[in-house]
Amino acid sequence: MPRLNSKEDLKALRRKIIGVRDLNKPYITLCSGTACHATGSDAVAAAIQKELEKQCLTGEVGVRRTGCHGFCERGPIIIIYPGEICYLNVTPEDVPEIISKTIKGREIIERLLYADPNTGEQMVHEQDIPFYKYQTRLVFSGNLWVDPTNIEDYIALGGYRALAKVLHEMTPEEVLEEVKRANLRGRGGGGFPAGRKWETTRDASGEPKYVIVNCDEGDPGAYMDRSIMEGNPHRVLEGLTIAAYAIGATQGFVYVRQEYPLAVSNLAIALEQAKEYGLLGEDILGSGFEFDVKVHRGAGAFVSGESSALMNAIEGKVGEPRPKYVHTSEAGIWDKPSNLNNVETLANVPLIIEKGADWFGSIGTEGSKGTKIFSLVGTVNNTGLVEVPMGTTLRDIIYKIGGGIRGGKRFKGVQTGGPSGGIIPEQYLDSPVDFDELTKLGSMMGSGGMIAIDEDTCIVDLARYFVDFLCDESCGKCVPCREGLKRMREILEDIVAGRGKEGDIELLKEIAVVMKEASLCALGTTAANPTLSTIRYFRDEYEAHIKEKRCPALVCKDLISYYIDPEKCIACLKCLKNCPEGAIEGEKRVIHVIEQSKCVKCGICYDVCPPKVGAVKKISGRPVPPSLPEAERAIRKGKKKGGGSD
Amino acid sequence: MKVKMKRVDEIIERYKGEEGVLIQLLLDIQSEFNWIPHGVIARISEKMRIPTSQIYRIASFYKAMSLNPVGRHIIHVCLGTACQVRGAPKILDRVEENLKIKEGSTTADMRFSLRRVNCLGCCAMGPVVVVDGNYHGKITPAMVEDILEKYE
Questions:
Q1: B23 & B49 share domain
Q2: Burial class, A551, CB count within 10 angstroms (exposed 0-12 / middle 13-18 / buried 19+)
Q3: What is residue A486's DSSP assignment?
Q4: Cβ contact, residue pair A223, B19, below 8 Å
Q5: First-to-last CA distance in chain A?
Q6: B78 with B90: CB under 8 angstroms?
Q7: Spans in chain A with pLDDT lower than 70
Q8: How are beta strands A210-215 and A338-342 bridged, if at all?
Q9: Which domain holds residue B108?
Q10: Which of A36, A384, A554, B21 has its CA 20 to 30 A from that of A453?
Q11: pLDDT at A642
Q12: B85–A608 CB contact, under 8 Å
């Protein structure tokens, strides 16, 4: 492919790509993001290849392995064109039938379609499935179409058009103005206006200037940045190049986690191709603008996602934060002005340039414009990536899109903002989700993790989990964060172990204030948020642990016991055989009893006891009832037992 | 475990003369050998003219790097928030009790190394356990033993 030397070259290439594509030719797209890899997308791809050969259709049917479609709960997903027929949970065994029936015979296989869990109604198109129907996919839409290893797919969708416009029709000042006017706020956590950040770096003295993409997505339960980087890397590169032009940078970096191998390899391919096509490197699209990008693989440190720490890491040093009175936008990598944006932020930039700041401003709320991608996970029915306009309510996201809570359990809260965020309880389900509203509720937007929690989650234990995570990830450079987190962990561990005392809650709050005021970086200043927000909304659970030594959610090991209800036990031997500790006594037709001194509370007996029987119980805050005397344990033949008979 | 120094030298060669590449170099060593042996650190120090103290500082700071040899099979138990609220702690307990080791260590027979990870990003499958890159999803404590038995 000869390099593109002008805006017209790009246009002509796009026309050429679209021109040779036969829209009537059957096409299979297969979701191949990391989550689908895990559920077997590679095996499905191999089966498709094999089957096409077998049925002599190679060449007549196109196959495209795209990035993540977002509906991870039901992956691997395939879509068949023409007709846009969407099949879910596809296995290699389904492939021969798909090829012979749907590809050859244009016949729909009903068993692979989405069926509404309530009405049973089947849906053929992805767009009709409630999970997708209530979303607004602007940033994420490319993922459904683009093979991330083929730049021409991206160009066919209008890719790099915004870059061409910027380079040939706009001055850097005009680009900056447009992004500022759009009020694009950073999607990585802070929500700081990207345009203002760009301006500071542009105005700072010192050359060269650097631009960086932050793909060090470390929040547990969040994977939207990875899915964009894996599924549509050119979109991010285009946004980065536009940022570089506006700021006046010639060198860019992509900081991507080593734990995201697919993102790393797709990005490397994208960089190669962009250079080959003249979209990176010297004289981009014949404009005279020069820009190059290097990849830095992050080596697994949560704190290195913080801007100054990330820049230390790029310099090859330990990724610890620097004192914050020096802004990285003025003195970042090698003390030069450096602008850092999150993946999703930059992926929005080409859209803003193409469609304009006014269009962007028409989506979302007063203070938060555009859409936001959330990674909706936890105990919802439809786990996946969800893109909605800012201001959509939590209820719409969790119930309309997420399909509600699994197993008919009661919704307890939703955790947003990762370890720096908080937990929002049920009474705020109708709150609109944007930067300011979530902060008001004591949580934050963060990068977009949204973890639904049901009644089986212990709030105190969850607070302990986040503090434990941060304790592990704190770099230890400043005292408030290092020591504060350790003390908080000790207190929370005591509470969940039944050693909590009066005054613990107040002490936690006191430590939180000091950490917030005195920590060096955002990891420390926000570290107490999960604890504070749970004390604010679920104080009664803390008190139950401290005062009554009771865990209301029946989770904390030291505060619960397993017990077999003799009225319900049918002596089926299931729990007895599965108990890894041999802690269950009994035999056929003899009611089973847990020997409490041997029990390690692994919960296997509770899991394997047939739901219809439900004899194994968890109890907390009260003693285990005395077991039946051995003489009374025999179940007489014919006696009706268990299964709600009493 | 014998490390091929020739391979080490090849990796070092990729980065020679460049600035700020130590982390990238160590990551490559880690992927090649699954750990960073002390002899290799000495070699890097000598060839790249970087003090060993600096290399140890980096290698001990980052989670992706290990200064201890690993077992034949590596188990990753995901403890991301989504897996956490779906019962992952019980899975980790079960694996620890089964192998009689704590997370972060290796069994005496070098059969398994056990690590916890803070999110693998396949939350729909949670709780997830990955052994040698094979994903096992929607795990219950009762399934742990059967999974481990598959890896000799």
A1: yes
A2: buried
A3: H
A4: no
A5: 77
A6: no
A7: 1, 637-646
A8: parallel
A9: 73-149
A10: A36
A11: 44
A12: no
- List A residues 40-69 in contact with B (Cβ-Cβ < 8 A): none
> How do residues A271-291 score in pLDDT, each as one tens digit?
999 999 999 999 999 999 999
The CATH architecture that domain A557-632 belongs to is 2-Layer Sandwich (3.30)
Contact, A140 vs A375, CB < 8 A?
no
At B60, list the tokens.
């001990």
Q: Which helix (H) or strand (E) holds B52?
A: helix B52-61
Give the type of residue at A202: R
Q: In DSSP terms, which residues pair with B106 in a beta bridge?
A: B113
Q: What is the number of structural domains in chain B? A: 2
d(CA A211, CA A253): 6
Average pLDDT over residues B22-35: 93
Backbone phi and psi for residue A641, each to the nearest 5 degrees, phi listed first? -130, 155
First-residue to last-residue Cα distance in chain B: 18
Distance separating alpha carbons of residues A448 and A440, to the nearest angstrom: 16
Residue B2 has pLDDT above 70, yes or no: no
Helix A161-169 to helix A233-247 angle, to the nearest 10 degrees?
A: 10
The chain B residues in contact with chain A (CB within 8 A) are 19-24, 26-27, 57-58, 61-65, 79-82, 84-86, 90, 93-94, 97-98, 117-126, 128, 135, 137, 140-142, 145
Distance between CA atoms of residues A466 and A418, nearest Å:
8
Backbone phi and psi for residue B59, each to the nearest 5 degrees, phi listed first: -65, -25
- CATH class entry, domain A459-547: mainly alpha
Please choose, from the candidates A529, A556, A562, the residue with its C-alpha nearest in 3D space to the C-alpha of residue A457: A556
Q: Where are the domains of chain A?
A: 24-81+85-124, 151-361, 371-454, 459-547, 557-632
Q: Tell me: the pLDDT tens digits for A118-163?
A: 888 999 999 999 999 999 999 999 999 899 999 999 999 999 999 9
Residue in the block written with tokens 């309309």: A400
In the block, tokens 């004289």 appear at A283
Residue A603 phi/psi, 5-degree rounding, is: 85, 5
β-pair type (A292-298, A251-257): parallel
Comparing CB atoms, the residue among B27, B90, B141 nearest residue A258 is: B27
| A145-A150-A155-A160 Cα dihedral, nearest 10 degrees | 110
Which of the listed residues B61, B89, B108 is the one where a domain comes to its end? B61
The ipTM, to two decimals, is: 0.90
> DSSP characters for A404-434?
SBGGGPPEEEEEESGGGSEEEEGGGTTSB-S
Q: Where are the strands (E) in A12-67, listed by range? A: 27-31, 62-66
- pLDDT of A601: 93
β A251-257/A210-215 pair status: parallel
State the CB neighbour count (10 A cutoff) for residue A515: 25
- Long-range interactions of A630-639: CB distance < 8 A, separation 24+: A633/A566, A633/A586, A633/A590, A633/A591, A633/A593, A634/A589, A634/A590, A634/A591, A635/A570, A635/A571, A635/A589, A635/A590, A635/A591, A637/A589
As a CATH number, domain A151-361 is: 3.40.50.11540
CA dist list (Å): A106 to A26, A49, A86, A391: 10, 19, 13, 41
Residue A102 carries which DSSP code?
I
Whether A537 has its CB under 8 Å from any CB of chain B: the answer is no
Neighbours of B86 (CB within 10 A): 27
**Among B65, B85, B126, beta carbon nearest to A299:** B65
Enter the CATH code of domain A24-81+85-124: 3.40.30.10
Report d(CA A208, CA A202) in Å as an integer: 11
Question: What DSSP string describes A332-401?
Answer: -GGGS-EEEEEHHHHHHHHHHHHH-HHHHHTSB-SSSBSEEEEEEEESBSS-EEEEEETT-BHHIIIIII
Say if the Cβ atoms of A300 and B63 lie within 8 Å: yes
Q: What is the pLDDT of residue B10?
A: 94
Identify whether B90 is part of a domain.
yes
